[in-house]
């Protein structure tokens, strides 16, 4: 791999976190410092066409060297594999992305990375329209990595979306309930679960049930909604305020047919009826 003066999309993090004794001998410090920083990498990825593809492929080649350079450092190896998967996914190389994510899962002690990798496999499978596989992968995140509650809760919500794609609304509702009940501490994912759950009822014109779900959500986070302005409370308030379901309900009610005067009094008692 070339380490020319021209900035390359190389592993800047490799040098920055590795002790001197373990730095790859094939690259000097000055050469590593010519690599693109994380912020530069993001700008590079925003490029388009062949230029973008070339940059991403160079980054993938660099990440692939990590296991060779740091065979005993499981965290770095797992992280590199995860990032390789993300880059393959950006290139829409689904099979290569999944292979990289599976490599990231080879180190069970790195549970957060493994959980994230399995979640990403589910997302790639969903993009490939392999919905059954996606559901299985996302469900497995919650089953195998429940200790990684943020990832697990998010995976369940995404899995429910896949079930809705399959018209399995009942199954989706069960999955959303699982996310709410099993990971109540994951406020963002739980609010998203409530929102999607309410939306499934709105789609069936079951407005009363949808309103009940929204009330349940607000009751669950009542303390945060009535909070004193702490950052966590404000975050919950923002997410609740951004829920889509209440807006959909308002729209449904606005377009609901207005009963006619005759219909509204049909069957109603009058003074004459009492005679």
Task: Describe this structure as you would to a colleague.
There is one protein chain. The chain has helices at residues 12-17, 29-33, 38-45, 49-63, 66-69, 74-90, 94-104, 111-127, 131-144, 149-165, 169-182, 187-203, 207-220, 222-225, 231-241, 245-254, 261-265. 69% of the residues lie in helices and 0% in strands. It contains 17 helices and no strands. The protein is an all-alpha fold and 275 residues long. Among the domains are: 73-172, Serine Threonine Protein Phosphatase 5, Tetratricopeptide repeat (Alpha Horseshoe); 184-254, no CATH class. The termini are far apart.
List the helices and strands in order: HHHHHHHHHHHHHHHHH
Major β-sheet, in short? none
What global shape is seen?
A: elongated
Query: What is the multimeric organization of the chains shown?
Result: single chain
The secondary structure category is mainly alpha
Mean pLDDT: 81
What is the gyration radius calculated from CA atoms?
A: 26 Å
Unreliable sequence segments = 1-40, 261-275
Attribute tags:
Serine Threonine Protein Phosphatase 5, Tetratricopeptide repeat; elongated; 275 residues; disordered C terminus; single chain; disordered N terminus; mainly alpha
Task: Summarize, please.
The protein has helices at 12-17, 29-33, 38-45, 49-63, 66-69, 74-90, 94-104, 111-127, 131-144, 149-165, 169-182, 187-203, 207-220, 222-225, 231-241, 245-254, 261-265. It is mostly helical and 275 residues long. Helix 8 (111-127) runs antiparallel to helix 9 (131-144).
């Amino acid at each position: 791999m070339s380490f020319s003066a021209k900035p390359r999309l190389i592993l800047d993090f490799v040098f920055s976190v590795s002790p001197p004794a373990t730095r790859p001998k094939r690259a000097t410090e000055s050469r590593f410092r010519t690599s693109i920083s994380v912020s530069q990498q993001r700008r590079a990825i925003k490029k388009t066409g062949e230029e973008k593809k070339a940059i991403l492929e160079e980054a993938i080649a660099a990440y692939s060297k990590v296991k060779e350079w740091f065979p005993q450092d499981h965290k770095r190896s797992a992280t590199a594999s995860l990032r390789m998967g993300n880059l393959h996914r950006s290139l829409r190389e689904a099979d290569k992305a999944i292979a990289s994510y599976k490599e990231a899962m080879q180190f069970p002690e790195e549970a957060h990375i493994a959980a994230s990798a399995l979640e990403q496999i589910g997302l790639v499978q969903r993009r490939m329209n392999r919905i059954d596989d996606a559901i299985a992968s996302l469900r497995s995140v919650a089953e195998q990595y429940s200790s990684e509650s943020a990832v697990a809760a998010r995976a369940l919500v995404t899995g429910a979306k896949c079930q809705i794609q399959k018209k399995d609304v009942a199954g989706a509702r069960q999955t959303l309930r699982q996310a709410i009940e099993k990971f109540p501490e994951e406020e963002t994912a739980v609010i998203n679960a409530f929102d999607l759950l309410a939306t499934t009822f709105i789609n069936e014109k079951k407005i009363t049930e949808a309103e009940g779900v929204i009330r349940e959500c607000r009751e669950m986070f009542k303390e945060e909604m009535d909070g004193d302005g702490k950052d966590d409370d404000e975050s919950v308030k923002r997410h609740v305020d951004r829920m889509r379901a209440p807006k959909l309900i308002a729209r449904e009610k606005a377009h609901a047919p207005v009963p006619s005067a005759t219909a509204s009094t049909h069957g109603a008692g009058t003074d004459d009826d009492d005679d």
